[in-house]
Predict the structure.
Amino acid sequence: MPLFIAQGAQDPRVNKDESDQMVKALEKRNVQVEYLVKDNEGHGFRNEENRFEFYQKMEEFLFKCLLKTEETK
């Protein structure tokens, strides 16, 4: 099952290096990961442009996942 991860590079709670490590470990296990990093964000996306991009990427990700689920039925 694929995974979508969004990360603010300036996040004081979730260090970007930890997210990078998680993505690498998952990819090593052949887990499909889509990873969105915004350099000018912290914990949560506050910039309006970044939020629009986040929602667009999440919508595309969910569409692909749900389409695959429907095709396997």
Summary: Residues 3-71 form one domain. Residues 5 and 35 are 5 Å apart (CA to CA). Strands lie at 3-8, 33-38. Helices lie at 16-28, 48-71.
